[in-house]
Design brief:
Helix content of chain A: 25-40%
Distance between the termini of chain B: 32 Å
Number of domains of chain A: 1
Bound molecules: zinc ion
Oligomer: heterodimer
Number of helices of chain A: 3
Helix content of chain B: 25-40%
CATH class of chain A: Alpha Beta
CATH superfamily of chain A: Dinitrogenase iron-molybdenum cofactor biosynthesis domain
Number of strands of chain B: 9
Low-confidence stretches of chain B: 1-23, 156-164
Structural class of chain B: alpha+beta
Strand content of chain B: 5-15%
Shape of chain A: globular
Amino acid sequence: MKVAITSTGNSLESKIDKRFGRCSFFVIYDTETKSVEFIPNPNKDAEEGAGPASVQLVATRKADKIVSGEFGLKIKPLLDSLKIQMIVLKEPERTVSDIIDYLNH
Amino acid sequence: MFIIFVVNKCLIKMSPRIKRNRKVLNLPLIKGFKPYGPESGSDKKEPVILLYEEYEALRLCDYDMCNHLEASAIMNISRPTYTRIYAAVRQKIAKAFVEGRQIVIEGGKVYFDSDWYHCESCGCYANNPDKEKSLGNCPLCGSLNIHEYDYDNENNLTDAEESCDNVCICPECGYEQEHLRARPCNSDICPECNTPMVRKNNNK
Ligand SMILES: [Zn+2]
Ligand SMILES: [Zn+2]
């Protein structure tokens, strides 16, 4: 299973990004192979439509879950319809490796 | 895919697994309709605004063929409220048809389709995309210490306040004003330079 994590940077020690659509990086973590891929978010500075474009990006990477700080009102129904699970973490101090540790429980 | 949801909802309504009904709103596929024909050219006429819940009320009854009682249960509102919303949407659509006005679908209070859970161990909130079975353990840390949570009611307010969706900005001079619900921004003209306003899109 693949999990997308919104990250403020491109290392495992980066803190998670509380923005979904305009996060700095998407981390795609594969829970089976334990592989980690960092993807710079091309929608980071988009004038508009960053949310739906980011949903598209995550969907094409076949992620089943997304961990982020918040999902906007327009994003939730999109992810709902794609059956991608939203996981909201309100603590911005968590790092990407914290999330990966959780996932490997 | 929205239609599949609808069918699901009508079926699971009968199912004892569902503990409570929630107001369901799937966003419409389109933002509105434009009339055509020789008399329809006047974009000057105020468009008719359909709120999301009005769209949903119409869809449930006239597309999905639920009766008023079923539709009000699905939307988790009283039957008189449903009847009022339904009457309003019929009237609005008739008005748009007869007077050749555009229909704009927007606004209103939006509720979401899936149930939300809160994990006591890692502190996360997660929705349950699989409507067929409830969430047994935390999708992040695996803890069993997880319970259902009314995420929409607890969080929608701050969510809406934080987004800049409700601010209109002038693309020419940058003048900003609060976006009026149920009214397209470009029907407002910038008081500084007479440019039609646009919705500010800025998540900071
Ligand atoms: Zn947890
Ligand atoms: Zn202006």
